[in-house]
């Protein structure tokens, strides 16, 4: 039996962000259309996320990037969990759960008080994953304004 090496790493300023963009363009294009907010965030994640105090995590399996997620700071200890993706060939293996659990733990280290996200009913497996790690459904008016037309599921996870 072959052992696979799984690592989760932070995307740092100056790092190549191609995998982050490619992974997200794949799922967004598969189910929806890329929107202006997607293009802005994916086109310059260093400026839009990292320089604002956010984080991007990449999951590598045997040296291949197979997943990603971002924590986008919104102020006052609130972060948006955004742009979570796992490659189609690696879905259903528990990698998304490992990635989101890592991200929640890192959010706590950052002093986050609350995480929130917008998703879609079309992404039932993703919504179920978020529920299973403690995110709760909330009305959209409880959260910062979402820029995505596709968002029809709104969730938050209170950390503190």
Automatic annotation (TrEMBL):
Gene3D superfamilies: 3.40.630.30. The keyword Transferase applies. Pfam families: Acetyltransf_1 (PF00583). GO terms for molecular function: acyltransferase activity, transferring groups other than amino-acyl groups. Residues 6-160 form the N-acetyltransferase domain. It comes from the Bacteria. Keywords: Acyltransferase, Transferase. This is Acetyltransferase (GNAT) family protein. It comes from Granulicella rosea.
């Amino acid at each position: 039996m072959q052992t696979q090496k799984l690592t989760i790493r932070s995307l740092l300023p100056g790092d190549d962000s191609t995998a982050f963009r490619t992974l997200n363009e794949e799922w967004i294009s598969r189910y929806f259309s890329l929107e202006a907010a997607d293009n802005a965030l994916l086109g310059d994640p260093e400026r839009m996320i990292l320089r604002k105090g956010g984080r991007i995590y990449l999951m590598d399996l045997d040296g291949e990037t197979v997943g990603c997620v971002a924590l986008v700071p919104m102020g006052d200890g609130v972060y948006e969990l955004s742009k979570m993706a796992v490659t189609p060939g690696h879905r259903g293996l528990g990698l998304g759960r490992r990635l989101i659990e890592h991200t929640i733990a890192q959010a706590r280290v950052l002093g986050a008080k609350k995480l929130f996200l917008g998703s879609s009913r079309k992404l039932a497996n993703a919504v179920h994953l978020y529920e299973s790690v403690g995110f709760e459904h909330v009305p959209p008016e409880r959260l910062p304004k979402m820029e995505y037309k596709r968002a029809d599921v709104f969730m938050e996870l209170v950390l503190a």
